[in-house]
Amino acid sequence: MDKPGNITNPDASTEEKIKEAARVVFTAKGYAATTVRDIAAQANINLALVNYYFRSKEKLFDLIMAETMKILFDKIKPVIYDESTTLNEKISGIVDSYLELLLENPELPLFVVSEMRSGSDMLPKMTENGKLFLESHFAKQIRQLQAKGQLNFHPVNIMMNMLGLIVFPFIGRPLMLKTGIVNEEEFRKIIEERKKLIPLWIVSIINL
Questions:
Q1: How many structural domains does the chain have?
Q2: Do 34 and 84 fall within a single domain?
Q3: Domain coverage including residue 43
Q4: pTM of the full structure
Q5: pLDDT, tens digit, 9 for 90 and up, residues 99-142
Q6: In terms of domains, do 46 and 144 share one?
Q7: PROSITE patterns annotated for this entry (predicted)?
Q8: Are residues 97 and 136 both part of a single domain?
Q9: SS (H, E, C) 36-92
Q10: pLDDT digit string (tens) for 168-187?
């Protein structure tokens, strides 16, 4: 995992500085191992200010997780709810949107996976977004394929394969960078290539 860095935006409000610092430390250390003092040190502010703005580590973490889930879903919501696009176009849109998001926030997958494994209470937030996904036009198009007998496997496999192909490179990114398999520039180039490759792979599975 990348080593936590300093706050990147010194002109941000104190509240935003605390949230940015918390994201860095939670990602690097996980919820259980993080202390409010760690967050204050990362933000270069007084410990009392963290408690003043957020009262507790738990409330700060809950806020960050809620924002994270919102970012993840809001990025693809316009794509999957668009009734004017084909399934192929939606697949390309989902892949492009998520890869762009993760290029901007490469530690996000590790953060989410780490907190899921630690047993943090992410389920309600993920369940809510899951319901919105099932109500989308994208899900409707998948169900239509299934009704026509064009899918000989469970439709969840489509999302599992697509998300796995999108997310796994970012989970493996710290190891690839540390061992010299790729450098940062090469990694970004690979991800740009995957914007074209992943939709081709998914469409070939569906036989559209």
A1: 2
A2: no
A3: 1-55
A4: 0.77
A5: 999 998 888 888 777 776 665 555 555 556 667 788 899 999 99
A6: no
A7: HTH_TETR_1, HTH_TETR_2
A8: yes
A9: HHHHHHHHCCCHHHHHHHHCCHHHHHHHHHHHHHHHHHHHHHHHHCCCCCCHHHHHH
A10: 999 999 999 999 999 999 99
